[in-house]
Design goal:
Elements lengths: L46 H6 L1 H6 L37 H25 L15 E4 L4 E4 L6 H11 L11 H6 L4 E2 L5 H10 L1 E6 L2 H13 L4 H15 L5 H6 L5 H9 L14 H5 L8 E4 L3 H11 L23 H8 L4 H10 L1 H6 L11
Parallel strand pairs: 2-4, 4-5
Antiparallel strand pairs: 1-2, 1-3
Helix pairs in contact: 7-13, 10-14
């Protein structure tokens, strides 16, 4: 990755906005010559889905090869104005107008960064929205809300909240994990016809919540591979161990248990993976397509409490309704933090850390997160 013939220049950007944790207002990325990294493949787990969505996936530029020229500072444009049909200063549930104004400014600046990045890197994509683009968007009809699911970013608790908003449950805390994800309470937008899809995209409030990309990856690994999970150990664990472990035991090959973090990263970065990608570690911009769909709010997991409350008041939800904060899977595990992420990535080489960052680089740019480690370009 290093090339001593070139002088690297750090570009800095100072932002006048107040930032919440997780809002890494774009800092300059060092420009450097880099050895080409093979484009990552993203085969779907289910072959039928892969065959059905090949065309729409090709319409998106996917994960572009990041060049030296692209690794430069983006100077954001002036903030966009608020939507006319939402009076931010009149939202209930906020005691101080100053606090509301600050949060509003951050959310609008976040959207503007997204717009700029889309204009810069994805201006050539097809503007046609297909059912495949909206397959992770959940519909709540009563309050006219669309929520794009990003696993490991509070999605279980958001689904609980949407179920309560729909009137199908009275208390989000009463819904267990199986009910939330497999109870059939919510419909995804791709189950509607094209006219109905476009009507909802044009008239409903749309939102998504994101998380620091490598924190999210570590959270997914801990959840799926460090705890009992027959589905993931069978589908992913077995082929990962078979390909990346030297002299695996017969027991490991049979059960798929015990995938190490280094093995998981090797799988993630492999251009010829033995098994496809999964929604829990797929790039967030590929799940929600924010360059095609104009989200009214892009929230951050790192400031979930305040930003979820802002959204609920914006859509007119009852003042008493709050987003739950509990963990329903592996509740005894400590939540993945920056320190835990650093601990896990210390188990892999500098090159693997760099390639992991490059793999999620578009998420870092689009959702305005700071570079996770100081030794990266």
């Amino acid at each position: 990755v290093h090339n001593s013939r070139h002088i690297k220049k750090r570009l800095c950007y100072r932002c006048s906005l107040m930032c919440f944790p997780g809002d890494g207002i774009l800092v300059g990325l060092q420009a450097a010559e880099a050895n080409p990294v093979s484009p990552m493949q993203h085969p779907n787990v289910e072959e039928s889905k892969q065959k059905a969505t090949t065309v729409s996936q090709e319409q998106d530029i996917g994960t572009p090869q990041i060049t030296k020229r692209q690794r430069k500072l983006l100077k954001t444009s002036p903030q966009i104005t608020h939507s006319k049909n939402v009076s931010l200063t009149s939202l209930p549930g906020f005691s101080a107008k100053g606090s509301l104004s600050n949060l509003s400014s951050i959310l609008e600046a976040r959207k503007q960064v997204m717009k700029n990045m889309c204009a810069k890197y994805k201006s050539g994509i097809s503007r046609t929205i297909t059912p495949d683009h909206v397959k992770y968007i959940y519909v709540e009809e009563k309050y006219k809300v669309l929520y794009c699911e990003v696993p490991k970013s509070g999605c279980s608790n958001w689904k609980r909240t949407l179920i309560v908003l729909s009137g199908k449950a009275s208390n989000p805390d009463s819904l267990n994990h199986e009910q939330v994800h497999y109870g059939g309470y919510l419909k995804t937008l791709n189950r509607f016809n094209q006219k109905e899809i476009m009507h909802r995209l044009q008239t409903y409030k749309k939102f998504m919540f994101v998380r620091e990309p490598l924190d999210r990856v570590v959270s997914a690994y801990r959840d799926k591979f460090e705890n009992p999970n027959d589905y993931y150990h069978n589908l992913f664990g077995k082929p990962i161990i078979s390909k990346y472990r030297v002299a695996p035991s017969a027991e490991a090959l049979k059960t798929g248990n015990g995938v190490t973090f280094k093995e998981f990263v090797q799988y993630l970065l492999d251009g010829h993976r033995p098994v496809g990608m999964d929604i829990h570690w797929e790039q967030m911009n590929k799940l929600c397509h924010p360059c095609l769909i104009d989200y009214d709010l892009i929230g951050k997991f790192e400031n979930m409490g305040e930003e979820s409350n802002f959204l609920l008041r914006m859509i007119g939800a009852p003042d008493s309704l709050k987003l739950p904060s509990f963990k329903d899977r592996n509740p005894k595990d400590v939540r993945t933090s920056k320190e835990i992420t650093e601990k896990y990535f210390s188990q892999v080489s500098l090159m693997e850390r760099q390639r992991a960052y490059d793999f999620y680089y578009m998420d870092y740019l689009m959702f305005n997160y700071s570079k996770p480690f100081n030794d990266l370009y």
